[in-house]
Amino acid sequence: MSQAQTFHPYIQAAKTPDKPALIMGGSGETITFKQMDDRSNQGAQLFRSLGLEKGDTIAIFLDNNPRYFEIAWAAQRSGLYFTCISSRLTAPEVKYIVEDSGSQILITCPALADVAKEVKATTTLDKYYSVSGSIEGFEDFEADRNAQPAERVADESSGADMLYSSGTTGRPKGIRPTLDPDMPIDVDTVLRMILGGAGGFTEDCIYLSPAPLYHAAPLRWTMTAMAIGATVIVMEKFDPETYLQYVEKYKVTHSQLVPTMFVRMLKLPEDVRKKYDLSSLKFAVHAAAPCPIPVKEQMIEWWGPIIHEYYAGSEGNGLTWINSEDWLGHKGSVGKPLHGVPHICDEEGHEVPVGEAGMIYFSDTTPPNYHNDPEKSQKARHPFHDDWSSLGDVGRMDEDGFLYLTDRKAFMIISGGVNIYPQEAENVLITHDKVADVAVIGVPNEDFGEEVKAVVQVMPDVTPSDELAQELIDFCHTHLSKIKCPRTVDFDPELPRHPTGKLYKRLIRDRYWGKKDSRIV
């Protein structure tokens, strides 16, 4: 019987201690695998000295900071939950997550000092720490950590992230996996197997992460890449040309992006796009939001058939995958299942025939456990299959077993009794050369209940006008039936889009329905 494979940065630290585990793209700060291992051990020792036991929780409220992984690995190897909080949130929103998660320690940085100090003033945690500089009233995490020995804690076990959904349709939900206090820290994972198999990740890879580390995909993929032994390059903030520069500079082999990043790169001048050598790039994967077909076609033409896509959620209750070749034969699909079995069901929960749209459920996986919210946990489950669960997305399956996303059920527009999925119009309008970003929503209509409206962010050199609004409506009509197209277009200087690519459509929609709760949570 073969021995199970193990993966963790400590393994690479023993093999090649001076190899970079992390390079910050902007500053160039480099952390070797030995430094990562030593600092995470010291962090674990510090957590134990503070009385934190297996199953306890810490909160990480940071920008893309070089200390991020030192802290996350310290929590992972001491059996803790680590709740990573969006750096874009307000103090009340951070306070809600800190308290709801049961965090005993908050770790932040001077870049977020204003919000952090307000959170400290309204909460009663055991410790408030700052890294990468000082904040008045906060203790120095690095000083306390560095005073600890770099040996492994005696009772190591695998911790886990406890993340909160992005709240595009309401208050965020904490996703708290079950922890086994006897689980080794180097145990193989489903994500590692996917990255090693479908992704071709090895210890020789150079992985570029352009997204915020507090989000599930960037956090988990970067940590998994490090566990495999790859070097991770982290962008402090995404910029389309800088991304291309880093691919060339660091000879990046693997990367994960979101469709809005594709759009921004494609709208760079052609001479800029052709300026950089991208030949090292062997694998690029995207997720988090639907990718318009023309955008993906252009990316495959530019980068070659190295682009992959997956559909999943922070909940981890299912995952589909598709490579470039399969996508070109099934355009618009998000692939076949790699984790879980998809089922398409009608409003009553009955499975619908192949080709018909319905709610997407996954079976053969663990349904999500939303912390402190049994009602939401139950709502995610199928009406009469308790082990089937859904993220609230609508889609269909084709005869070849490929899944296609239609839209989120919460965003569906019902106009005169007809169901309209706004994603279709959004996918058309984003390809217009004067459109930087777009949201299509339903707004009140006395006769039909709702009508379709587009809210558009124009490109920097474009001036909004009534003429442009009509041009965009006409453009949509050339690609879609009239009922799916906006009747009106409004312009917005900047749409509320999460850095991970998700659009806070609820906030836009609420303006037109007179709702006052406009928090980005």
From TrEMBL:
Residues 146-179 are annotated as: Disordered. SUPFAM superfamilies: Acetyl-CoA synthetase-like (SSF56801). Gene3D superfamilies: 3.30.300.30, N-terminal domain of ligase-like. Residues 424-502 form the AMP-binding enzyme C-terminal domain. Residues 12-363 form the AMP-dependent synthetase/ligase domain. This is Acyl-CoA synthetase. It comes from Ponticaulis profundi.
